[in-house]
Amino acid sequence: MSIAASKQALIQLLQNKELKVIALSGAWGTGKTHLWKVVQDESADDTIKSAALTSLFGVREINALKMRAIQSAAFKDFQQTSTGRSVNGIFSAALKALKGAHASFGALDDLALLLLPSALKDKLVVIDDIERKHADLTPDEILGFVDECCSRYGCRVLLILNEDKLSNGELWATFREKVIDAEIQLQTDPVEAFSIASQLTPSPYADSIRKVVEQHGVTNIRIIRRVIRACNEILQSQSPPHPSTVARVIPSVVLLGLAHFKGIKDAPDLDFALVPSSADYRVRLYLNREERPWTPEEEAENRWHQWLERVGLVSIDELEAEIVKFYRSGLPNSPAISTLLAANEADHRRFTAQSQARQFFTNCLWFPSRSDASLIEEVEQLVGAVQFLDAGVVTQLSIAAAELNGGGPVSERLIDVWLDAFQERLTDSEAELAWYQGRRRLSLHPKIEAAVALARGRLVDRVGIAEVCMKIRRDQAWGKTEENVLRNADVGSYVDAIRASQGDELISIMSQMLDVAAVSLDQHPNFGAAGGVFVDACKAIIIDAPDSRLSKLIVHLFKEEKIHDLLNPEA
């Protein structure tokens, strides 16, 4: 029966004084001990409140069990009752006897026999973890202790056990036949199990975890608590995580945890999750299906993917592999997982910020009744996410904000916060400049233009245009460094390089860049918009000094390449 029904049944059985031995059985981890503690805490009956709880876990001889029962019964409240005080005095005297006997087993036996009548008289004795007893402790010894408690000391006994895990089936059959007066079989459902687990181990992601737990019918409270802790630990690096991150992470953490801790039956080996899957795995599995039976590994992999699909995961990638390593290593933190989650967070926060920016522009344009103050509030909300917007959008936001009454300060703050983030990204990688390749005519905020020009100039200065072009001409090959220099050089850099070069340097620049311009001005497969920037630089030289020998050389070279029309001012 359910926890709620079992609780009421247990209360009623405990109230019936005629029942000497009561059993509470159920699967491992389903809340038997928790149920007993709830009943004890809520009870107004002194006998239940002061019950002696002892566990058989690891107990290998009967006198050790007796000592555990004595400790639980007597010393919990020995300062509060006359029985406790008398037992305390007996125990002190017995300790002296033990010292004289060098802690021999005979002295221990005498001590246990001496204390039992006083400690357990009229007590409710709760014996937990019967299935976890040591093999040396025989069923007859346990039966004898239970009978001794009931017949000699006026006790009542509550047995708590997992029947499925009893190594000796005859033990439970003997208990049922000769000892137990009433039995309750606890059958916790997943909803109850998760409710208890989430109370004991709270989580801000409880709703998401609950869905996976209930889908797989998990009732083991201990295992549920472990996966809840894992979810909390893995997501703690994001504060708070984006809903999409929660939706991506929780199913994997819970499902892999349930498999790892044996919370689901017939779970596949987690090695499958260490290898990212692809959409064609079913093709692999079903290939020649009729010509040969599936291997056990293929069966397990197919079952694994069916479970993934049940929780909304079509395939697995490096995140699942890192989660498996997290469970197997037991390490409290996983830098690899944090890195993956950070990338996911950035992607979705970028999407959210872009959506908010589009909504702001819509409100400015199509909702003229909106007050300037309310629109400024919208922009204020974007300041914290401005690093997820590109330079063009930020420029337009700044312009729109500046046109609002009182929007000047937030307009400037947008740019300043964006520039701080831009500089941080540049520190991590020069790939940040790649966005500006192919956007040579993009109109940006002056501060952004200056920052980008400075960054591109630093890159070009380290390896000059002339040097790169000479290397390409000499080796007939290039790498990322050469691509980045030519991609990131602005019009001024090309003008300076052409004017400063003579001989082989000038030949290399003109031949290489004319080849690039002939292919594409804006979308060269290797050099992006470098061809167009080079053409603009040549136009600038010609406009500045149309009669110079350099200008005439440039015009001649363009005519030879049959791309003279590119030098027209309107081109």
TrEMBL record:
Record-given protein name: Uncharacterized protein
